[in-house]
Design goal:
- With 105 residues, the chain is mostly helical.
- The protein has two helices and three strands; from the N terminus they run βββαα.
- The chain has a three-stranded antiparallel sheet, with no helix packed on it.
Amino acid sequence: MPPVSFEPAPPGSPASPFPWSLARAGQFAIQLCPDAEARQRGVTPEQLLTVIEMALTSWLRVTPWRRSCWQARREVRTALALEAERARARWAAHVADCDAETNLG
């Protein structure tokens, strides 16, 4: 299986904080959601990371001696924690904006 590559968003795509719009491995491709709030079509970073973490966990049951799988799973779990923190921060900012609008009115 060839390594996964991430392709840039084509010109004219919606503005995105992510530098890619498609994950590809050989003939397989997954459209990634360009919106950090997951309001557009495609797989979100959290969904992709969760599936990868589940696959690595399953693979480690079969090959527990593979250090690279353990390391990859740790890195994916770290990425998931960072995504969760990003989502919490965005939600807190949204709530603060709503509270500010309520206080002005």
